[in-house]
Structures are given as structure tokens and as C-alpha cells.
Amino acid sequence: MAGSQLAGVCLKDAGLWMKIHAEFRTEFLPQTERFAAWQEVTNGLIPAVTRSEHPDEFQASVRMVALGDVQVTSLAFSPLESYRSPKLIRRHDPGQLAVWISLSSGVEFDLTSGSSFVRAGETLFYSSSQPFRVRNRKPVQGLVVQLPAELLPASKAAASLFGTSMPGRAGLGALLTRYLVDLVRHAEHYRTPDVPRLSTVTVDLLTAFLHGQRLTDSRSAPETHQRVLRLRIHDFVRRRIDDPELSPQVIAAAHGISVRALYRLYENEGLSLAGWIRHRRLEHCRHDLADPRQAHRTIQSVAFRRGFSDAAHFSRLFRSAYGMSPKDYRKHYS
Q: Which Gene3D superfamilies match (predicted)?
């Protein structure tokens, strides 16, 4: 992948804070080099032949997050056309599923299964193993998720949806989009131990989204139903994580299940519901302490703002999770 063009990539694990994101912007390059640089960078996604009618006026940006076998990329680019031919597939096929989510304007996809116009807020699944032609006649913003087909439990059933534009403005589609946008936006804050967890959540959300498109694989339906419920609970908790009154009783009531059923959902997750909530609150505090814009806040106010009600207890939890006190952490990373 065009390492010379992408800033922020660290190929070796630098310990707890390995960088897992990269960024590219044409604005930092001479006009005559921009489109060629874009071609070099995007060939690290799914290789295709790309053309622009106005290469000297081309503008684009890429922000990528690598989560092991799962890669999430945010893109914005001028009008262009990309073609992945059968010959190019025979030469190199990474065997990946790809998901395109339009955030603005629209993109035309021509695949062997037919043509689709993916409007803002819509989602389309496709594969590196099938030819495609992609065109956008206006500047566009979007997200691409790439992963090996075997990582997606519903991949065989999903094949019937390849090339079909699916709505994503509400329900699980909106949840998926919101999560991916935030994932890329906050990429610089992730640590190496976060990667497996983020990868799992990404795959779970994609699976839940496909299940919501009425996939009928009965063998995976009960498991997928539980994943969908957990993801909805996670979204509910994320939006209320700073509320000190957040409790298992509140969460269970909001989702129409008993507290016992709520706990049962997390029996095999390796982390209890209370532990997951505590982890999310600590992560918010960690980000706040490392943010120079919040240096005016006392450590106690950071803790209270994120749902902790006891400063001493918060300090003990923080030291246990990150190996240093909140005070030392702020001094080291802000």
C-alpha cells in the first residue's frame, strides 16, 4: 500500500500505543501528482483501473483504520471511474468482501449481478472476486469496509445481496454507519489491545445489518438475534454512558427483557455487562485526560462527568486498567 503516500502507519508494534491508522490528502501534493498518488493509495484497497476526466483538478482524502483482517476506510474524492476487470481479478484477488456506504451524493455500481445507484445513506455489498465498474459524477464521501469472506458468518446468504443497494438511514443501518464514522474519526486514540475487540464489533454489526435485510439462514438466526440485541444494548449504553443512574435495571427495561436475561446475554462474552460499562467509562476518561482542550478540568470533574461517583475508586480502577494514575497519565499523554 503506497507507504510513501500514507501518513501515520506504524508497521511494527510499538507497545500499547501502536498506530493502527493512516491518512492521505491530495491538498499536500502538487496538482500534477495528486491523481497518480490517489491511484497508488487506493490500489491498497481493492486494485482497479481508475480514470478521471480532470486529473489536474482532482481532490481526495483517505483515512484508514486497520483492525487485523478488517479494514475500515473513510474516503472523499472528486468525480472518477474505477474498473476491476476479469483480467485484473485473475492477476490478483485478495478474496475479500467489501461494503460501500454512501455518506453524500451517489455512486453508480455496475456488477455482474446488475447495476445499482447507491444514494446517500445507502449501503452496497460487493466482492473483490467479481468484476465491477464504479462511477461518481459529483464529489462524494463514503466508507468502505473490507474483510475476508470467512469472517462474516452470513457471507453465503449475503451473496444474494451483492450489488443490491440497501437502505441504511434508520435502525441497524444507521447504527452501523454511526459506529463506522466514529471508529475512523477517533482512530488515533486506539491501543493495540483494542484491535481484536473493535474488529469483533465491526463484524457483528455487519452481520446484524445483513440479518436485518431478512437473511433466512436458520442455523445462524438465534445467534444473530442475540448479537443484534447486544449491539442495540451497546448503542443504548454508549448514548447514556455518562449517566450515573445507568443500571442493569434501566437497560433491561428499555429493551423489554428481564435483568436475568440481560446478564445471560453476557455469560460467554468474557466481560460482564457491568465490566463493559466500566471499561467504556474509563476509555472516555482516558481520552479526556489526553485531550489538551480539557486540561482545565480537574481529574475529579473528568471522572464525575463520565459517570463515576467516587474519585478514589475511579483512581484505583484507572491505575488497574492503564498501569498509571490519572494524574501521571494526563502528564504523559496530554
A: Homeodomain-like (1.10.10.60)
CA atoms within 13 A on the CB side of 268: 3
In a domain, 205, yes or no: yes
Following CA atoms 322, 324, 325, 327 in sequence, which dihedral angle do they give, to the nearest 10 degrees?
Answer: -110
Q: Is residue 76 part of a domain?
A: yes
* DSSP code for 244: T
CB-count burial class (<10 Å; 0-12, 13-18, 19+) for 294? middle
DSSP secondary structure letter of residue 88: H
Is there a contact between 156 and 217 (Cβ–Cβ < 8 Å)? yes
Report yes or no on 145 lying in a domain: yes
Query: Residues 198, 179: contact at Cβ < 8 Å?
Result: no
Starting at the edge strand that comes first in sequence, how are the strands of the sheet with 60-67 ordered? 21-25, 60-67, 70-77, 140-148, 96-104, 122-127, 166-167
Q: Looking at residue 110, which CATH number applies to its domain?
A: 2.60.120.10
pLDDT tens for each residue of 244-299: 888 889 999 888 889 998 888 887 766 788 888 898 899 889 888 988 888 999 99
pLDDT tens for 219-244 read: 445 555 676 677 778 778 877 888 88
Let me know: does 287 contact 190? Beta carbons within 8 Å.
Answer: no
Enclosing domain of residue 94: 21-239
Pick the closest to residue 308 from 282, 328, 289, 276 (CA basis): 282
Number of helices (H), then strands (E), belonging to the chain: the values are 12, 12
pTM score over 0.70: no
> Considering the domain boundaries, does residue 128 fall inside one?
yes
Number of domains in the chain: 1
Nearest to 24 by CA among 48, 52, 59: 59
- Count CA atoms closer than 13 A to 191's CA, side-chain side: 9
